[in-house]
Amino acid sequence: MYISPFKRKVEVMKPKNYNIHPSIYFILAAIFIAYFFPREGKFRYQFYEGKPWRYGLLTAPSDFPIYKTDEQIKTERDSALTKFQPYYRFNTNVESEQIAKFRNDYQNNLRSRIPAAYSLYIINILQKLYKNGIVSITDQESFQKKGFPQINIIENNIAQSYYSSDLFTIKTAYEFIINNCPGRLNKTILQSCDLNNYLVENVSYDKIMSEKVKENILNSIPLANDMVQAGERIVDRGQIIDNHTYNELRSLKIVHETKSGGSQRQSIILAGQFILVAGLIFCFWLYLWSFRKKILQNRRNALFLILCVFVSCITTELCVTYKLFNIYILPYAIVPIVVRTFFDSRTALFTHLIVVLICSLMVPFPHEFLLLQVIAGMVVTFSLRELYERSQLIRCAFFIFTSYALCYISLYIYQEADLKKINWIMMLYFGINFILLTFSYILVYIMEKAFGYVSSISLVELSNINTPILKKLSETAPGTFQHSVQVSILASEGAEKIGADAQLVRTGAMYHDIGKMVNPVFFTENQSGINPHSQLTFDQSAKIIIGHVAEGVKIAEKAMLPKEIISFIRTHHGCGKAKYFYNSFKNKYPDRIIDEEAFTYPGPNPFTKETAILMMADAVEAASRSLEEHTEESIQSLVDKIIDGQIADGLMKNAPLTFKDVEKIKEIFVDKLKTMYHTRISYPDIKTD
Predict the structure, then answer these.
(1) What is the pLDDT of residues 245-286, one digit of tens each?
(2) Around 210, how many Cα atoms within 13 Å sit in the side-chain half-sphere?
(3) How sure is the predictor about 12, in pLDDT bands with cuts at 50, 70 and 90?
(4) Average pLDDT, the chain
(5) Of the residues 170, 179, 342, 524, which has the maximum number of CB atoms within 10 A of its CB?
(6) Are 615 and 646 in contact (CB under 8 A)?
(7) 114-118, 121-125, 438-442, 615-619 — which one is most confidently predicted on average?
(8) CA 247 vs CA 50, 250, 253: distances in Å
(9) What angle is formed at CA 245 by the lines to CA 49 and CA 226, rounded to 5 degrees?
């Protein structure tokens, strides 16, 4: 007997082949994560004013200035700008043009009705107004609003200071002409001269000169107020960082990150980041290749895991680069929660470690970050060791919140020895993290639909006998329902014995015969004395019996059951024969040519450990009902006969089972059947005289 150690999925279950090797996902993830990494040369030290220095002795690597803070620079600039006077420019042509215009109008129109004394007054007053300067109302309001008591006016490339209050607007200039009219002149006649026609602004804002002078004033303010010489001691371990030391460290960080600029240096930084990220991604690939090769060889699984890493890292990069919010708000523990839901605990923890190691290269205080996140990952692993209920996800989120809080407080007590220095706002961040983690309940459902996974939680929910299909099965075909329950017990025990997915095979067993609900009375376990097959030919009966597979698939697909469960329905008879009717036909008509296809199930044959175990359990449980005596010898003989017959017929050739697995399954079946058919002793009656 030969049983292939490899799993070969049948055509109907194969995903579409896009000719993308799973390793490509890992390479692309490393490239994109490195590309979006924060580009500045990262300063190796983290420090805060009023906190102790956590590293060794730090001396100045070279001369560097002690830069002023942004607040200091802003204060000095604001103070310097109070002395700034904007620049305006005289338009000397305006005066001559407007006076010439008035003289022309006077000669042509006004001379006949206005005496010469009025003309002389108007010309003299216009010369005075234009010499003093006329500005727009907007500029005049700007002087008052911005507080410019004096301005500079450029005339013939020479700037002179003027009081802004001495300047006229067109309105005030007109009023000045009327109000300063000599007593010998009539104001009414003066007003009839349409003086507004000769009043035009001759002082305009010189933006270029003003901005240039303002820039010179701002540039004259030094950005640094002291220097640190190369080799000078800056800070030592345990020293409390005061304001002066903080400014020195801040300045050193600015110098370091400024020197990181330049295309050549940026290329070197990018190369270093890529090597680090690629190395960690390669470790992840190496883990899967060494211990979880089946996951790695499945493109869907590889894509899912690498997306967990990629999305977490990109989110961290955006948060750090743009300073969106505190890094501890991000629910990093959601990665091991989701991975554990669909895979095993070790893979979940290793995926989480890769995520936090990459993210620690970007976040402030990487050591504390690593400590808190690694502990959170361990908490997920322990709390979700057995995952059967969605409420466990909420409980896990609470445990993570507790671990964050305790670890953070303990770390600060260890470092500071003072509860007053604990930043209690961190508890708010951990609380938001907890709220986001509770959404893992929804995320698991989304991932199931997006990637076609079936979680242990969903399997437990599907195996509930109160689900619509199973409830209908128990009412329509009670015998089949009882058979399914017995098969689920046998199959799950066998799966657990050889390390297969017991919950998957248990749920699959509950649904494998739902097609019998269409014609329940044609199956012996649902009959009560009358056998409808007695009125049918052997091939007609075989067609009805074989048809329960296709009917079951239809019911399952209509109910949108997962493909993994539908696989059990398709494969629980494989490509085997409906042997009762096949053998009966051959015995009754030995000389006839038999149509093999009419008595053969459509298949396919089992292609996983779980579907193979279900086929064995289904056949063994059904056949055990026909035993006249349920002794250990008869049960053992029956189990050997059924399973060995299935192997001999080639029904197990695609199942990844070994000889050792088969023997273990046989043993557990025998033990369970002995327990199921154990007869109870008769209770004696009380003798009466």
Answers:
(1) 888 888 888 887 676 554 566 677 788 889 999 999 999 999
(2) 15
(3) very low
(4) 87
(5) 342
(6) yes
(7) 615-619
(8) 12, 5, 10
(9) 135
Which of helix, strand or coil describes residue 225? strand
> Torsion-angle region of residue 431: left (phi > 0), alpha (psi -120 to 50) or beta?
alpha
Distance CA 461, CA 468 (A): 12
- Gap between the Cα atoms of 468 and 522, Å rounded: 23
CB neighbours of 326 closer than 8 A, spacing ≥ 6? 426, 429
Question: Residue 645 contacts by C-beta under 8 Å, 6 or more apart in sequence?
Answer: none
Helix (H, G, I), strand (E, B) or coil at 68: coil
Say if residues 255 and 67 touch (Cβ distance below 8 Å).
no
CA distances from 100 to 92, 117, 190 (A): 13, 17, 18
Q: Is the pLDDT of residue 10 over 50?
A: no
Q: Look at residue 672 in the predicted model and tell me its pLDDT.
A: 92
Q: How does pLDDT run across 552-577, given as a tens digit for each residue?
A: 999 999 999 999 999 999 999 999 99
Does the pLDDT value for residue 427 go beyond 70? yes
Domains and CATH numbers, the chain: 11-40+264-451 (no CATH), 81-218 (no CATH), 459-676 (1.10.3210)
CA pseudo-torsion sign 648, 649, 650, 656: negative
Report percent pLDDT > 70 for the chain. 93
Q: Mean of the pLDDT values across residues 95-107?
A: 89
Neighbours of 223 (CB within 10 A): 14
Alpha helices in 579-676 (DSSP H): 579-588, 609-624, 632-648, 659-676
Phi, psi of 490 (to 5 degrees): -60, -50
Instruction: Single out the residue of 357, 399, 355, 342 nearest to residue 376, CA to CA.
Output: 399
Dihedral through CA 424, CA 426, CA 432, CA 437, nearest 10? -120
Task: State the pLDDT at residue 19.
Answer: 61
The amino acid that residue 469 corresponds to is I
Give the contacts of 607 (CB within 8 A, at least 6 positions apart). 7, 8, 9, 10, 13, 571, 654, 655
pLDDT at 680: 47
Residue 50: CB atoms within 10 Å:
10
SS3 439: coil
Q: Is 582 helix (H, G, I), strand (E, B) or coil?
A: helix
Q: Which of 200, 220, 237 is nearest to 92 (CA)?
A: 200
Nearest one of 444, 448, 463, 484 to 562, comparing CA atoms: 448
Rounded to whole angstroms, the Cα distance separating 427 from 501 reads: 40
Q: Is the pTM higher than 0.85? A: no
Averaged pLDDT for residues 397-408? 95
Residue type, 551: E
By the 10 Å C-beta count (0-12 exposed, 13-18 middle, 19+ buried), 41 is classed as middle
Query: So what's the pLDDT on residue 452?
Result: 84
Q: What angle do CA 310, 313, 318 make, to 5 degrees?
A: 120
**Residues in CB range of 295: below 8 A, 6 or more apart:** 288, 301, 302, 305, 343, 347
Instruction: Report the alpha-carbon angle 215-219-224, nearest 5.
Output: 155
| Buried-state track 528-545, b at ≥16 Cβ within 10 A, e below 16 | eeeeebeeeebeebbebb
**pLDDT over threshold 80, residue 143:** yes
Of 188, 86, 178, 102, which Cα lies nearest the Cα of 139?
A: 86
Alpha helices in 454-534 (DSSP H): 456-462, 468-476, 478-498, 502-511
